[in-house]
Amino acid sequence: MSLADLVRKGDTAGVAAALAELTPEQRRAEVPALRERRKEMRDSWSSSPDRWTALLVAGAGCLTAPTAAAEWIGSRAFEDRAGWRNPLLVEVIDRQPPEWRQVVTERLAERRAPGWGWSEHFPLLEYLVRSTGCPVPTTDSFTTQWVRERSRPEPRHAAFGTLPPGRNLFARLAADPFTPVLAPRVFEVPDLASELEGPWSARDDSERWPGVLARLAAEGVLDRADLIDRCLARLLRGGGRPNDNRVHLSILGALAPTEDEYAGHARTLLGMLDGPSTTAALAQQVLAALDAAGRVDAELLGEACLTVLFRPEKKLVRTQLGWLDRAARTAPDRAGPVVLAAAGAFGHPDRILQEQALKVVAKHLRKAGPAVLPELRDAAEQLDPAHHVRAAELFGTEVRAEEYAELLPAVPQPRPVPAPIATPAELAEELGAVLAGDTGLVPWERALDGLVRHARADRPALAEALEPVLRVHGGNSLALVAEAAAGRMTAARAAEISLGRVRGHFRYDWSTGFDVQIAARLEEAVRLLAVRPVPYLLATPTLSTGAIDAAVLVERIAGYAAADIGPGPVDLGQALLRVTPTDDPAVLAAAAQIDTPAGRRLTAWLRGGGLPHQESTVLAPSNGRAPNGRRRSATRRLVHQPGAGATGLPADADRLVDSTDRQLSQRYVWWNPPASEQWAAILPHHREETAARMLERFAACADADDRGGCRLLPVLAEAGGPAGPAVHLAVAYGLGARHSEDRTAAVDALLVLAARGDLDGALLGREAAELVVPGAVKPNRLAEALRSAADTGAFGTVWTVLAAALPVLLAGEPGRGTGDLLAIAADCARRTAARGPIAEVTALAARGGSSRAVREAAALRDVLAG
User: Fold this and answer.
1) Which of 269, 88, 279, 109 has its CA nearest to residue 182?
2) Cβ-contact 86, 53 below 8 angstroms
3) What pTM does this model have?
4) Domain ranges of the chain
5) Of 538, 546, 598, 664, whose CB has the highest number of CB atoms within 10 Å?
6) DSSP class of residue 185?
7) Could you report the per-residue pLDDT of 88-113, keeping only the tens digit for each?
8) How crowded is residue 285: how many other Cβ atoms within 10 Å of its Cβ?
């Protein structure tokens, strides 16, 4: 009976016995049949574990080339089959020559470790290492598996060996000959730190890896100096997962280096000051202690200050200034370097830290002597204007503040859309990029128009060019339109898709009104391509905002009339929503010359001024239900718009611009797709209407911690039409978003609106404050965003926002984070020379006390009083 037949029966013992009778040539001859059997078993869900074990043993015995044997034994096909623990596998491997077994051992040690959990083949590999006498492998994979295996609550027993005894991790590692070789490697293997938090069965910290490693070093099993070197080097390198540093700090804490040991690593500690805040805090603490013991020179202290005093973490900066103060007090001869180092904090963005630095300088300035004054005067120019008077008193000269000038970005100009795609080959290339993930408006629109154009001009050439693209990308979005354009779609399927009744083609459970309008365009494109191809699309934008030049649209519709072709209703409707309003007599006269339904529709649309703009009314939070049946939010502020009335647009477009009371932004689903640039381009001249219909998405970024919903805010800011309550409320939500990239997008939108002259700072400030009061927006997030905006040079813009926000915010008890907003307000007011009291600020300042809010309110009150 052949080995393959024995494998089919699951007879592992028979396989082992048969292998003993075969010559090397006979065993090699069995390999093709075994490989075929493995393929069959992979494709079958019914193969028993016994068959897999028999197959594993058969391959291990027949593959006489060690590299091939290692590939077979380590194959993922045998994962979780328990065959690696079968003693017959060891028996078959032990029959092989020593050189063969050593190569197999080395190759298996390089095999990638499982992403998590224990490796079933590690006990076999450990046995091979011990029995062959080869060096202990130090690969990342072997080290990872070793750590996991030793962390097991109970050691595994196999017929071919027993792991070091005992449940206790220390006892296990102390008796393990692998420990001296592999324990030092744990600091170098990527993504291993989380494994060192265990074992999970440990009852206290002394039984976990950090404590055990320290005890092994104390017992002489490991080299203590080497462990400290490696641990500090790992902390210096940083990187990895966020928790990795915490684990390595735990190991260092368990090792508890002495002052002498730390003194030998002063330069390493200096480098750690630039690492994560927890690592930097430890390095700072140790270096300060070494300095107090007289073991840090002035040069190293200066370098430490250059690193720490520019960090954003206020606690680190305060501690560093305290270290400088103690250094000058204990060694007066260091006063000069100390005051110059402290002056490095004059440029810190936090005004309170600047004040603390100024106090350190003032305390030690006399001992430092007049030689430091020129450098201090130069550094004082970075101080907040609030400290200029004090700096002038200390340094003997007036600190001149620069004359204020508001800095805003250049007003963005929309970019022209390139000419239509010229050839099927070029179209295939651009369509491939879009289907691969290029979600930009212009590539998407040009690809859609190109499919329509080239399907009519030369469908066979288009089909040939699209074939490789559709082979890779297919089944959704533009790929379905491309199938219709290439003639690869049956009439029945085209009809099914174009009717728009089946979800999963272009319409989905999560579709918003914007998605539905896009779906209507795609459905109509499939229908036109399957029934009567048109020469081009009317709704392709001429500008990157989605807008269409009125003269170009007149020319397009005239082209349809000349060819005696009627446009698709959805395409025409989208073109009307995008056309830029005009009163140019020549354009209106040219439109009036087109004697077709589409021409007459365009003429009436242009003469009527296009889609009317809707008035927005802000809706306060409510526990009731909206007219559409949805329960309103108790914290969210939304916007009501009455609807555009009778527009004559196709149904989906008409519903999009209908009253917000009768709309569902989308059906409830567990996942919200990312907002698309195409949404804002549907109504390029009506950003207020677009913002009103997207407000819940913007709100979710602030009160539900969603990510990415605010990325369209800069696009809306660059769009046309009035910027009313909806746009400003959208920006207010974005400024209080959970994720930094959403706040950055909101800051960009704020600055663009200001640069265009469309920002109502008072409206934005009031709406932002109304969101803070019920907790929809956290004040610390709002403060961070407004500080970012101010730091670009837009202090006047930010002041108009905060001047309107503060009366609302301070009407009740100041919440946490209000002090940050007051500090930014004081900075902006000081720089812009704002004057005039704010009653709520004055009242808060009059309370007295040492709270941050009261102190900053007093500072702002004084600035406004001149």
Assistant:
1) 109
2) yes
3) 0.73
4) 1-96, 617-644+676-864
5) 546
6) G
7) 888 999 999 999 999 999 998 888 77
8) 13
